[in-house]
Each structure stands twice: as structure tokens, then as C-alpha cells.
Amino acid sequence: MGIAQSVDDAYFQQKVKLGQGGFGTVWRAVDRKTDQFVAVKQIDKLQSYWQGAKRAEIQLEIDILRACNHENITKLYNYYEESRTISIVLEYCDGGDLDDKLKEQGWQLREADASAWTRQICAAIAHLHSKEICHRDIKPGNFMIASGLLKLSDFGFATFLAKGEKTTEDVGTPAYMAPEQHLLKKGSKGYGHSVDVWAAGCTLHMLVSGGRHPFIKLKNAKQVLDMDKLYAGTLDFGASMLGGLVGGAFQPATVEARSLCQRMVCPDAEKRLSAEEVLKDKWLNRASQEANLNVPNLSEQGYANHFRKLQQQLAVAEKQLKDAEERELSLKSRLQSQDNSVMVVTIPLTLPECMNRCYSCTSCSKAGPEHRINIDRVLK
User: For domain 7-91, is the CATH number 2.40.37.10?
Assistant: First the structure.
């Protein structure tokens, strides 16, 4: 894999930057044979060396990706090592990430969709654990979206870890790290696969509470971790924890959703649910089946927002036309009872300028900026 040819021989790299990391850059590229979009993670060897990344660590990430084959995990297509760079060719995801969705939808996210997303998250985790892999950085920002599916990405902290074994390596994102990880320097004997489930539970809490993290609080106008609540696994299931916007009113998260979240965010690692157990949860399965999950990518969402605004502006234009027609009918009615000495005046009514940017209306696009509707008004 990646030995016989260079990355440029197989892929045309476009000047579209998808991301920037500490060791390199992710670019969009096109497969020269299939014309399929891919993402190329290009690692600068010298830069990564000076920042402390060992070649073995980069190879570990590649080996972990090669071991995975699941619809909710970003696919590795190929990798190439050249004199100055290592290029990892990955599945291209054009729908943003789950963190984007949380910010975009907030309280409007339906509980059924939150359940469906949680199911996909835990399906990816369960696959990793079956391959004796611990991800160690589960969080909304590491789940990309492609064709309506969540795709777990960024395996920089992932490691091979046999079931039942523990590690004491201090890595991860603090806000999503389990108590046994935070306590490594205070007597913790290490951690295992269950830290991924803890992080997934934090994500579920965010999905059913408008994006609010369970253990982040404001202190002196800054966001900080509430370590007391984190160590105790205390979740706020009061009035502030609200689900999606349904029928114009906020609905509280169901008892079943709260129960699953609490069992995932259990401070006792031995009592915490496994990913496989989460997937068997009745609420998760029932709610997921109810969800008509269709996750649009960000560009599609942008078009949807545009057309919603366009519809509002069209409604204004239609009201203008209706008012003008009513005035015309009123004037004609008055004139019928008077003499025939009238003057006909044509008054142009300009539709909103946005009509000229409508992507689906052929009449608007052909008419250009001078698109007008003439209304014959009869004046005495």
C-alpha cells in the first residue's frame, strides 16, 4: 500500500484545504481513475519530528484505520510515504461534523434524531472494541457526516488495547475524559475501553440538551470543567435539560433517554455500560426506528435556508400583487358608473431583488434585474 507510486500519480490534489493539524494539512483531492473525491491528510515528516511525533505513532494510526471496516468509521483508501511527507488517503466527508450540527440545530434537534446519532456513535465504538481498539477521543467534533451517516475520524489518540486490559497513557480531550483518566496522577490504576462509552454519554447529553455539555460551567466569564460533578457523574436532568422543539413547544428529554445517558456516564467504570449493551437499549432502538434520519450536508442546509428566506420574500410580493389587483378592481367598479373619459397608466411593480437569485425559477433567471410585472391601473 503506497509503495509503488506517489500520491500525485493516483490523485489530483485540489487547492481546497479541509483542515489543519499540528503535523500537517488535510486537502481535498480527486481519484484520477474514478473521479471520486477523497481527503488527503498530508503529514510533514520534519515538522512532526520536531513536535515529538514518532514515525511509529503515525504508522499506528494507519494500522488502526486498516483494521476497521464499518459504515460509521472513516475509510482508509491508501497511504504513501515519500522523502518529505506521508500522505494518508481517506474517505471524503462533505457534510461537516456533529459539532456543526449541534450548533446549527440546537434545541430544534428531535430526540429521535439524537437517538439515531447515538446509535451510530456507539456502533462505531463497538466495532473498534471488537478489534481491540480504544479511540480515546470520542467527541462531536470527531464525527464527520457523509451521505447522511456519521463517520468517526481522527485516530491520533487511538491505540490497540485488549479487552480487560488497562493503560495509563494520559491522552484525550479533558471535557470528554472519564474520571479514571483525570485521576491518573492521583492513584488511578488506569483505564480501558469504557472511557469511549463515557465520552459517548457526554455527547448524548449534549444531543438532548441543545448542545449543553454536562460538566462545563461558567466561572469568571470563562468555561471550565466542574470536576466535582464530573467525578460524581452528576447530570442535570432538571427543567434546563430540554429536548427538541416539537409542535412549537420545548419537550423535556424522556425518562428512558435520561436513564441511558446516566448509565453511560457512570463514574464507576466497572458498572458503566459497554458499547454493545448501549446498542441493546430499548429506548435507543425504538427512538432510532422512529427517526426518519436524513442528515443534510452543510451546503444543502445552506440552500434550504436560502429558499426559506425566498419563500418569505415571495409571500410579500404576492401580497403586493393581491393589493394592486384589489385596487384595480375597485377603480374599474367606480368607473363603470361614470363617463368613459379615462386614462390608462402602466405602473411597473418590481419583485424583490432576491428573485433574480432563485436557482429554480427559470423565468426569473431569464428576466434579469429588470424583471417586472405590469399592472394596468385605470384612473379617472
Answer: no
Contact status, residue 130 vs residue 139, Cβ threshold 8 Å: no
**Catalytic residue selected from 97, 113, 137, 196:** 137
Annotated binding-site members for ATP: 41
Check whether 260 has a pLDDT greater than 90.
yes
**Contact between 65 and 131 (Cβ < 8 Å):** no
pLDDT tens for each residue of 317-353: 667 777 777 777 777 676 666 555 544 444 444 444 4
- Other beta carbons within 10 angstroms of residue 298's beta carbon come to 15
Q: How far apart are CA 69 and CA 315, in angstroms?
A: 49
Q: Where are the domains of the chain?
A: 7-91, 98-295, 299-379
First-residue to last-residue Cα distance in the chain = 85
Three-state SS at 285 = helix
Instruction: Give this prediction's pTM.
Output: 0.72
For 342, list phi and psi in degrees, rounded to 5: -130, 165
Count of H helices and E strands in the chain?
13, 15
Buried residues in 84-113 as b, exposed as e (16+ CB within 10 A): ebbbbbbbbbbbbbbbbbbeebeeebbbbb
Domain 98-295 fold: Transferase(Phosphotransferase); domain 1 (1.10.510)
Distance CA(31)–CA(317), nearest Å, equals 47
Residue of 38, 40, 18 lying closest to 30 (CA atoms): 38
Q: How far apart are CA 304 and CA 169, in angstroms?
A: 45
Q: What is the pLDDT of residues 91-137, one digit of tens each?
A: 999 888 999 988 888 778 888 889 999 999 999 999 999 999 999 99
* E strand or H helix that includes residue 232: helix 227-232
* 137 among known catalytic residues: yes
Which one, of 349, 353, 302, lies nearest residue 325 by Cα? Answer: 349
